[in-house]
Design brief:
This protein is an alpha+beta fold. The protein is built from one helix and five strands. Strands 3-2-1-4-5 form a five-stranded antiparallel β-sheet, with no helix packed on it. It is rod-shaped.
Length: about 100
């Protein structure tokens, strides 16, 4: 009465199934970490913000403007303190992509 429990030619889980399980586990871990940390990968795609901002100071050729989230600087600035500008930048980043004097009227 000898039973041979391992009489098949294949042992364990086939390679494809093992690779699929491994890939699903990795994806699950990545999604779990994203959930825990507030989905930081979504911040890679930042939105453009366009707003009015006032020049608050000027030193040589660098202006500091006051935007809604934090002050930003413009190098080679041709504006004067008190000028109202229309600026465009990516949310959460420092550099200003576009700036121009707001035209009255």
């Amino acid at each position: 009465m000898g039973y041979d429990f391992d009489s098949s030619n294949e042992q364990g889980i086939p390679g494809r199934k093992l690779a699929l399980i491994f890939a699903l586990a990795i994806i699950g871990v990545i999604l779990f970490l994203q959930f825990i940390f507030g989905f930081p990968l979504l911040d890679l795609i930042r939105k453009n913000v366009t707003e009015e901002a006032k020049v608050v100071s000027k030193d040589d050729s660098v202006c500091v403007i006051d935007t809604s989230d934090h002050p930003r600087s413009i190098s080679n600035c041709k504006y004067k303190v008190g000028d109202l500008l229309i600026v465009t930048y990516k949310n959460g980043t420092q550099p200003i992509e576009k700036h121009e004097l707001k035209r009255s009227g």
